[in-house]
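User: Can you predict the 3D structure for this chain?
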Amino acid sequence: MNTSWPVPAAPRPLVPHAEDLPDPTVLPVPGGYFIYATNNPAAHVPVVFSPDLENFALLGDALPHLPGWARPGFTWAPEVIAVEGGYRLYFTARLRGTRRQVIGVATSASPVGPFVAAPRPLITMLDLGGAIDPDVLIAPDGKRYLYWKNDGNAAHQATHLWGAPLSEDGLSLAAGPVWLLTASEPWERELVEAPQVIEEGGTFHLLYSCADFGDESYAIGHACGESPLGPFWKTSAAPLLASHGTLAGPGHSHAFRDERGQWRLAYHAWQAGAVGYPHGRRSLQLSALHLEGRLARVG
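Assistant: Here is the predicted structure, written as structure tokens:
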């Protein structure tokens, strides 16, 4: 393990394909990869380290203390980026006094944490059901953009994907939100979420999840555009990745470049025959991601 990071002396070995690591995000660093996931009974933001994407160790909780506005037990879909002098953690949490999820931001000098959350949420969208699933693009010109979903299905409303430029310090939006995409295909089942935008060769690829995370219908879709905020158009009448073989309901993906510069896709999936809690686990999966012009394929 890269000893330049302050990690516990004896981190717990982890078998990611057998343990619950939903909504994964990957932060490549010199010497390895940090992986963050949705809360579990022991941590608000579990953080895992892997030197090679083959061996994994659970380090602990990157966000050991929630801000006063957040209710415990609903801390989802973290995203961590490097900024000058430290790191930013974007996360989803339940706003106290409501039944709505909102997005917060936290700061740390280390990718391990502890991250300290800002005293107020970054994005709420309460009139649209709340806001979840933050993700950040660092564009080729160095500008940062935040993407998320309005949690309309929590309030019997439509779900949409949104984006906005971030301030230079990453702690606020630099402009208002832009609508990017909504469900239009039968296999999306009227729900889109978990957006991520990545850039390759001047094309901006929007990866997103759709349908019901709790069953085999969950899948990953793909769209592309010519700027970080679109407009985006869907490139296929079928999912980029759907249930297959022993994997059921793959989704909430995060694309990243490995140490060789190759695109990889992290996502979670149930095991066929063990879909849904309490018996199933949304385990971490890793696949190759190929971007070919305006198209994408997995595997």
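DSSP finds no helices and 21 strands in the chain. The mean pLDDT is 95.
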